[in-house]
Design goal:
By secondary structure, the chain is mainly beta. It has no helices and 13 strands. A hairpin with a 4-residue loop joins strand 7 and strand 8.
C-alpha cells in the first residue's frame, strides 16, 4: 500500500543566472554632464561595469554617477587618456589599473527602464560605456 503525504519543498537561489551576452551602452564624445536612460531586460537587479575614457581632460577632479537616488563620486585628478572603471560587482573603482577611493554607493540597476546622470567637472571630452548582463531569478 502506498501512502501520499503533503509536503513542502523550498528552493533557495544562491546565484542568479544571466544572459551569455552582455548589454553594452556607449555614450560618446561628451563635453558636459548628461542624463541618459538604460534598460535592464532581466527579472533581477544587475551590477554594471561603467568605464570612462577621457579623450581630453583639464581641471577634471570629480566624477559622479547618479542612479535611482544613489551617487558614487570619485575625487581624483584626471588627465587626457585616463581610464576610470566603476565595477559594481567587485565593489572597486580603478583609475589606470590602480584601485582608488570613492564615496557613495555602487549603482545596481533595477529591472526595466531607468535614467542615470553623469557629472564631470572641468574641461573634458569623454566616452562612457556601461556593460551589464540581464540577470534572472
Amino acid at each position: 500500500m502506498v501512502t501520499f503525504l503533503p509536503f513542502t519543498l523550498e528552493f533557495r537561489v544562491l546565484e542568479k543566472f544571466r544572459d551569455i551576452t552582455a548589454q553594452n551602452y556607449l555614450v560618446s564624445w561628451q563635453t558636459g554632464n548628461f542624463t541618459e536612460e538604460i534598460f535592464n531586460n532581466g527579472s533581477a537587479k544587475t551590477e554594471p561595469i561603467i568605464t570612462f575614457v577621457f579623450n581630453s581632460a583639464s581641471g577634471v577632479n570629480e566624477i559622479s554617477f547618479v542612479y535611482n537616488g544613489n551617487t558614487i563620486t570619485i575625487s581624483e585628478t584626471i588627465t587626457t587618456s585616463d581610464i576610470l572603471i566603476i565595477n559594481s560587482k567587485e565593489k572597486k573603482v580603478i583609475l589606470n589599473a590602480n584601485e582608488v577611493d570613492y564615496t557613495g554607493v555602487f549603482p545596481i540597476f533595477e529591472t526595466g527602464l531607468e535614467s542615470y546622470d553623469v557629472e564631470v567637472n572641468g574641461t573634458k571630452n569623454y566616452d562612457v560605456t556601461i556593460k551589464f548582463f540581464n540577470t534572472y531569478l
